[in-house]
Amino acid sequence: MHKPLLVANWKMNLGISASALLAKEIASHYKNNSSYDLWLAPSYTAIEATIKASASSGIKIGAQNVHWEKSGAFTGEISVAILQELGASFSLIGHSERRHIFYESDEMLAKRAECALNNNLTIIYCIGETLQERTENKTIQVLEQQLSPLINLIKKFTSKNIVIAYEPVWAIGTGKVATIEDIQIAHGFISKKVSDCTGEIVPRLLYGGSVTAENFQDIINLDVVDGALVGGASLSVEKFLPLMRICSV
Ligand code: PEP
Hints:
- The chain has ten helices and eight strands.
- By secondary structure, the chain is an alpha/beta fold.
């Protein structure tokens, strides 16, 4: 069993002051709680302030994406070195909004992941099927395809700095949560596939998609779930604290 991990993805919300304020409140309720890990992913511009606001709490701060080159003509992108200079210790990679709104391919995501791992930046690699793919019974096929670059990276780097997030696209920000059975099947498949191919301990496996205080307990109770990646319910203390409480028991 892995130590539970709760990750907040603030997406393109909260400026510098609002992020710092929220991080400070969250940190005051976390206080180096050793029963679970807590990570926050604010906007790039708020990373430094969020780190300061949660200093000494044990909370890790990271980014929502990272580029694969050291530097150069990549307008709008950010490098591992710049993130590490800010103090970031992880990055999301392949969030469904990156895959579907910005058309980031598996190949591109593999490059992002490899560069991060090469430079000791932990990654949370997100995978998940669309509603159409699920309706066409292609969920497992899609997960297998999306996992493939990650499996090569686990073979090369081991799973030490890797977290996987299963996030069905149709459940993100929609209020529709995957059923316990859907989660069990998807997570069971991912764990088996990774351990069969790599012989490695499977990385922590998070569920993401409309997680709230109402559904989280049943999800985290599953043996195959190590925590959650949370969007909407991480944007206020009122909604996020109950998730922290569920993790801390
Ligand atoms: C996410 O952003 O990864 C996410 C799961 O969002 P939400 O919790 O709002 O569905």
